[in-house]
Write a structure and sequence with these properties.
The chain is built from five helices and no strands. The chain has 193 residues and is mainly α. Helix 1 (2-42) crosses helix 2, helix 2 (51-90) runs antiparallel to helix 3 (102-132) and helix 4 packs antiparallel against helix 5. Keywords: Membrane, Transmembrane, Transmembrane helix.
């Protein structure tokens, strides 16, 4: 008897995870399709381009569409949460609304937070630098050269932002260890130059 309860609890957990994953996928698919049509509506018609530029434009279009879908999902999540909570309070015993539970809403919030940060700090800068890149001088031209230049630019941007934040935190925090750390940083830069 206890084994059947354990199996049924495991099955219920499995079914709820599958249900949540399916709902998340369907919501994101709808948002992605709508975002794709919005971007196509406002995208400037491009001239005939070389194969490499066309591939770069397609990759940037995909990244921009993904970012727009994630941001639309993050914006629509608060009204969705409020409406689902009101529906659950109005019809607590309805069989057809049981899929709309707190676990689904928490999962959607976690996914929105994760993918919003990913889009803001990784995908959008990558799309911009990738669209503007031409490859390093002296290397064979192609997609790989553009990706390499884009990754180098992203690493340099991350180091620049990290350095600015580190210097600002050392200046704001007025203790001796922070100032000594800042002086060591300036000595290191002086030796590198």
């Amino acid at each position: 008897m206890e084994g059947q309860d354990e199996v049924s609890a495991r099955e219920q957990h499995f079914h709820s995870q599958v249900r949540e994953s399916t709902i998340c996928f369907l919501l994101f698919a709808v948002l992605y399709i709508v975002s794709y049509f919005i971007i196509l509506r406002y995208k400037r018609k491009s001239d005939e381009q070389e194969d490499e530029d066309a591939i770069v434009n397609r990759i940037s279009l995909f990244l921009s569409t993904f970012t727009l879908a994630v941001s639309a999902g993050a914006v629509l999540l608060l009204p969705f949460s409020i409406i689902s909570n009101e529906i659950l309070l109005s019809f607590p015993q309805n069989y057809y609304i049981q899929w709309l539970n707190g676990s689904l809403i928490h999962g959607l919030w976690n996914l929105a937070s994760l993918f919003s940060n990913l889009c803001l700090f990784v995908l959008m800068p990558f799309a911009f630098f990738f669209l503007e890149s031409e490859g390093f001088a002296g290397l064979k031209k192609g997609i790989r050269a553009r990706i390499l230049e884009t990754l180098v630019m992203l690493v340099l941007l991350a180091l620049l932002i990290l350095g600015i934040v580190w210097v600002a935190s050392a200046l704001i925090d007025n203790d001796a260890a922070s100032m000594e750390s800042l002086y060591d940083f300036f000595l290191l830069i002086g030796f590198c130059l």
